[in-house]
Protein 1
Amino acid sequence: MKLSLFKLAAGLALAALSGVPAFAQGQSTLDKIKARGQITCGTSEGVPGFSLQDAKGVWRGFDTDVCRALAAAIFNDQDKASYLSLSSKNRLVALQSGEIDVLARTTTWSLSRDIGQGIAFTAVNYYDGQGFIVRKKLNVNTVKDLNGASICVAQGTTTELNLADYGRTNNIKFETVAFATLEETVAAYEAGRCDAYTTDLSSLAGTRGKLQKPEEHILLQDVISKEPLGPWVRKNDQAWFDLVRWTVFAMIDAEELGVTQANVDDMIKNSQNPEVRRLLGVESKFGESLGLTNDWAVRIIKAVGNYGESFDRHFGPKSSNSQPRALNRLWTQGGIQYAPPVR
């Protein structure tokens, strides 16, 4: 699906003239999705582990699991989700204009995005940080060794801003070489147009693996930023915000409570844990409060599993983009990831 610049411009113009966001002038986002029969998700241009098309053209990844979970919660069918590939430069415009229902794409939560662009961050599904990849032959050990070096970076990202901040803070001069798309940025680095390439650490490992000679490149150990990532929605639609947020939370709570794809049916029948029973809709009506049926979380877990199952599928040791879970471990396991209780 191609992004229509005309539709984006028209949507923004309408919102500006009316003083009301285009999506808010009629049905709620959830009502529109139900009427349409599918959810439209904004995704990346292809980030290993997060969102990447497989050999059959099907989008797979940790972020696209959020979209599948939403489709399962709403329609009991994880395949009722379509995906719009967006660059860093146009991803927020697509959400603002109503071209997509949710932006489930590596997009950092920051103050300027949260308060001034008509969009709202829902929940952190991945704690990340910015890193660097360089060629071994440069004999570079730390970011500070890159003083005077040229750095490839994608336009319209916090990555670009973080690089400038780091340079100012540490009195280091970088020659920033920015590109409109991720593909162009990686291609420029591999072609030798830059000494280094910087982006989120989670993406760098996958990028290294796709280079023609990955053994000639190394990831520096420095982490220069905080990058809390997760899905975004438009503001002024509280019901849709709540549903997207609690879809992420339901997956996290399910892992903490030990509810999995394999045992969820047994848990429904036999668990006496009140937290489990509330999550699975056995003793509560929280699903109705979200505009769904009370087994909404059951459908999510059956479709994509709990948070840990999704993480392991896309970043685990058997995946093509293995990543340490690190901060994304549950709070009970030494990480900082946890969700509010369902009660």
Protein 2
Amino acid sequence: MVPKMLWRELSLPALLLDGNAFDENCRMIAEKANGKTIRIATKSIRSIPVLRRIFKANPLFKGLMCYSPHEAIFLAEQGFDDILLGYPCWDEQALAEIAKLNANGKQITCMVDSTQHIDHLNKINQTTNGVFYLCIDIDMSTSFGRLHFGVRRSPLKSKIDVIQLARKIKESPSLTLVGVMGYEAQIAGVGDKVPSQKMKNRVVTILKRKSIHKIRERRRTIVQALEEEGHQLVFVNGGGTGSLDTTSADESVTELTAGSGFYSPLLFDYYRDFRYQPALFFSLPVVRKPAPNIYTCLGGGYIASGPHGEDKVPKPVYPPGGKLLPFEGAGEVQTPVYFKDEKLEIGDPIVFRAAKAGEICERFNEIICFENQEIVERYPTYRGEGRCFL
């Protein structure tokens, strides 16, 4: 937690990084990789200096997975290489620039999962005369009767689906298939220790265990089929922070992906099998006292994406015992917090944790890093660099 002596040095609201906790998370994540390399998910970090800090922490951290073609170009301009676009994109201008960068020695890999993507890239290359490196996204969701367990990502669900797309890629001289990705979101991104959801937690735990075998078999079969067709894959990417243990044990996977675990936001409190150190916080100033035991802060409405619910709102964590009001929650420009016993004054700080990781960085220009009772760095976010990608 942020030492009290630092508050006089801060202009609130502020985004804060506990450097010691962050470094410990880097160590723990690398330890779970079983020697495999880990690609960093930039959407969960959204700060160039923080990305560099991760790479310095352990040689197993290699490569980036970004979310926007313009972001990929920006990262390449910052000196990063081995950049994987984790999602398909359609922006002709950005894709043309990526093709040119690749022709000049960069390694930016685009994600595809349909023939339309292939046709679009071929059309772009008619005018750019560049190079596209491609990764095929495989659906890793599982079905139990009518229940779809996972997320709606790729339409490619079988070996035949993937082979047909790979053959179309092979027909295009300017397109090169270099990788396969299968993100098991139902393992990596779903908590199974959510408060007040005991029955649902049990069901999710059972479904996760049953999914792991199906996921490994599907991925192994597809990778083997691609190799038999003569495709030389540079990487097979899988997993996320929430599935490092199980994905790293899959022999067909060559690299893992991690992102949110470095900051360890609130949603990571709801996993049964692991726990990282809370590292990213934001602090708001008390600006009014509308009633006894209620202290209203400036800002705070930083609601996480996904299905709306209590698990997507930020949580006051310091001073301890704070609670949001049920009929107001976290507001756009003001957030009232109730304390039963704590006595605060106007100007005092209240510290919160966000539900998810990188999204909170879109609200601040910098991340203030503190270690051992003092501020040591100020890291600009994408927003602080004047960039907004999504």
Protein 3
Amino acid sequence: MNTSRTDAAALHEKPEPFWLDPKKRAVLFQILVLGVVGLIAWYLISNTVANLQRQKIATGFDFLGKEAAFEIGESLIAYDASNTYARALVVGALNTVKVSFIGIVITVILGTFIGIARLSSNWLISRLAAAYIEFMQDIPVLIQLFFWYAIFYETLPSPRQALNPMHGVFLCNRGLIMPVPEFHPAYRYVFLAFVAACFLVWGLRRWARKRQDETGKTFPVFRVSLGLLVGLPLAVWMALGSPFSLNVPELRGFNFRGGTTLSPEFMALLLGLILYTAAFVAEVVRAGIQSVSKGQREAAMSLGLRPAQVLRLVILPQALRVIIPPLTSQMLNLTKNSSLAVAIGYPDFVSVANTTINQTGQSIEGVALIMVVYLFFSLSTSAFMNWYNKKVKLVER
């Protein structure tokens, strides 16, 4: 009897209004916010387009197919003034990728060493690392770029009096000039051998990890991997006759010919970004190492591990979970700070885009391209670091 009354009451009970349901209310608020944002965006875009049409200013990206008519001092691909604006922007983007990639690699290595040195038991090493961190963090990166740029142009001699620290290497106000290997068809096969060695190392690491999980026996992965990465390309190179010749720079007239030249603008930008960002990376590494409890170190030492082994096998693997998120931010900061290259004349993407804007007058499209390119760089770096963070995270049993 009571059950039938309860069922009847449930049938006659009125449904709850949707605005009292938290989930439905949250969806409604999100739809409203998106609608408001869409209306604001529509208003701004339509107003901008109307103003541009009223002032008879061209819009669109048709200018990308027109002749650029300006030279770019440094380029990773073939380029001259007769090429299009699109190719000029690609050259600028590649220059940004070059300085960012090299800067990130060296910054991570240098920052890691300084962060470890900051925690050294040696008083002098620890204090020198601390002084470096404090000094570099307190000087704005733009000031550092001006400083290194002035060092190259004001302090170093002209090409005729260039410094020659070693055979074929010259340092002057034109930059760092050094020899490079001349291309030989055999180098293609050497490169393919290196790629094959990388795949072999990847498979070897997976096999060694599986073998250790099943049997408990370890395998000298590092030594074998190093042997594969060096030995296989070296064996292919020797089998093809060991071809090797250097393109050595020579002074001819008022400049050097041959070899490769790292311009003062590139060197100043790279040094400024590395030395500045490495100070922050060092603090990130120091904080990550200190986040690991002292008991871990003491337990590893009690097993007979040497200090270097304790750091490499016990401390750093656990510290990575703390290090990687802020390290990702520092990588992004280095990439974004590379846009300051325009201040010292290095032709990065921002510099090339500014020249394009000045010549075409299409500032909205130019700024939009800058935003999209740097957004792509940032998202790509974040995606890679997030993948690496998941790969190295500790798995609890």
